[in-house]
Amino acid sequence: MRQPPGTVARYTTAARINHWITAGTLILLAVSGMALFHPALFFLSALFGGGADDRAIHPWFGVVLLLSFSLLFIRFARHNLWGRDDSHWMGALRRVLANDEEHAPEVGRYNGGQKLIFWLMTLLILVLFITGLVIWDTYFFGYTTIETKRVAQLAHSLAAVAIISVWIVHVYAALWVRGSVRGMTRGTVTAGWSWRHHRKWLRELASAPGEGAKRR
């Protein structure tokens, strides 16, 4: 498929499908989990066939999320390694939030904020999965003590609140930086967007012909 003129390739079709499966599963996991979190939210269980069905399917959403995010991790971990530029960018965050990126440090494919979200999501998904196994009584009831399950339940709930908060920040940032969502819907971004928000990455693409075709 021909790339529209004036655009820069950012994500492959496979990467975008992987991303949206992860996003959709996270939403299903959050909604089904909130139904189990507090009686006031139990009405959400009706979306999954009732309390018993919600409780049964919720852990499996977690398994799908782990598998899907693992593929995303393999794709993007190397692009999210922290560097000196990211620390400088975070130090200039006020300028970025004030739409004064012209005077902020240039960044590569991802900025410090995006990298921070990536690693927070990685950590929180691991915590959710491990604690989820401990409290998944259908299969693992006899492997841990009641006290361990109580600690795991608390950690699981706190991690769930944290990951929902991180997800909200991620979505808000994607909408706030106009043109970002296009990358995950069409696979391309405009050259102007790339120059303004990821100038170092654009320079790297320009100096390495064909690199755009290798995007993940």
Short account of what is shown:
The chain is built from 10 helices and 2 strands; from the N terminus they run E-H-H-H-H-H-H-H-H-E-H-H. The chain has about 220 residues and is mostly helical.
Describe the secondary structure blueprint for this structure.
Elements: E1 7-9, H1 13-37, H2 51-76, H3 84-91, H4 93-97, H5 112-134, H6 137-140, H7 146-176, H8 180-185, E2 188-190, H9 191-197, H10 199-207
Antiparallel strand pairs: 1-2
Helix pairs in contact: 1-2, 2-5, 5-7, 9-10
Structural class: mainly alpha
Q: From the 3D structure, determine the CATH topology.
A: Fumarate Reductase Cytochrome B subunit
How many helical stretches? 10
Write down the Rg. Answer: 20 Å
Indicate the CATH architecture: Up-down Bundle
The CATH class turns out to be Mainly Alpha
Query: In total, how many domains does the architecture comprise?
Result: 1
Low-confidence stretches: none
| Distance linking N and C termini | 16 Å
Strand order of the largest sheet: 1-2
Biggest sheet: strands, sense, closure? 2 strands, antiparallel
Q: What is the molecular shape?
A: elongated
Q: What share of residues are in beta strands?
A: under 5%
Order of helices and strands: EHHHHHHHHEHH
Query: Average pLDDT across residues?
Result: 91
What share of the residues lie within helices?
55-70%
Q: In total, how many beta strands?
A: 2
CATH H-level name... which superfamily?
Transmembrane di-heme cytochromes, Chain C
